[in-house]
Amino acid sequence: MFVCHRCDIEARDGVQCTLCLNWYDFPCAGITEAGYRKLGDRKATWKCSACKTGLASPLNPPTSKPTAGKVTQVDLDNIFQELKKLTDQVSALPQLVENVRSIQIDISELKTLKDEMPDFKKSLDHVHATVDELTDKLTDVEQEIQSLQKTKEDITRLQQRLEKIETTLHENDQRLRLNNVEIKGVPVTSSENLFTIVSKICTKVNCEVRQEQINYIARVPQRNSKDNKNIIMSLHNRYLRDDFIAAAKKCKNLTITDIGLNGSGNIYVNDHLTFENKQLLNKAKLLAKEKNFSYIWVKNCKILVKKNTTSPTLVIKSESDLKRIS
Fold this sequence. Notes:
Blueprint: E1 2-3, E2 10-11, E3 15-16, E4 23-24, H1 26-29, H2 33-37, H3 49-53, H4 73-91, H5 93-175, E5 180-184, H6 194-205, E6 214-221, E7 229-235, H7 238-250, E8 268-271, H8 275-290, E9 295-299, E10 302-306, E11 314-316
Antiparallel strand pairs: 1-2, 3-4, 5-7, 5-8, 6-7, 9-10, 10-11
Helix pairs in contact: 6-7
Keywords: Coiled coil
InterPro entries: FP_C, Znf_FYVE_PHD, Znf_RING/FYVE/PHD
């Protein structure tokens, strides 16, 4: 709280003249509160209108003339007040000096920043050049990725074509064996006659195959055993082959003693499958046993499976078909 020097009315907020140190409310000071707040550091130099025009003295000398040669109490009070005002003014000097120093420091920092601007611009140009270079490289990488993607698609198409070609070759290879019969379990002897062995088997299974109906007959070594050689016989037509295989399968206990050889062991007459189909058959048997399929057999060189008597018959042509056994 203070009393306005002009209107002698108490006020809560106002401004103080930095010269005469008198307080004024905002209307008497001739400035709005917002305008005064915006002065910032210039508040420390604000003067009232009387001080600006020189109509008032900072020391506010008394209007009454003192008695000559005598210092009154009023004179002492006035001197004390003026000294207090001067003290207040002097106390504001360190802050003013500090403000000036701050301004000088800010100017020095601005000069330093100005000096550093060329280096900063050079660094910024280098960053821009680096970014442009990286952008170009990224573009090249994207083009290379697109090229690789196209190459990948081409490889996928070639793989599909290769798989089809391999499947076709495999089917052709198996088709060439449609008239063949594979006889397993007949031990090799030094003086054997394969036509005689086949004749004895035909007698046992009650299916006649004359020698002139045989295109060729030979021992073929197995991949997993060179000593165990199966007999491969090619007949004139599939019908004769089917009849011979069917008759041999009806004979449940065809052994080596049935063809006049010593020892023990069964003789098996089967379709002549390719090596790939033999592997596929073995895998199908293991999976069928695991999944409780009751029937698995080969007919016309095709692998067939059936879960029970009422379920449909499945044809297994490739490993992908093994998924159907479930």
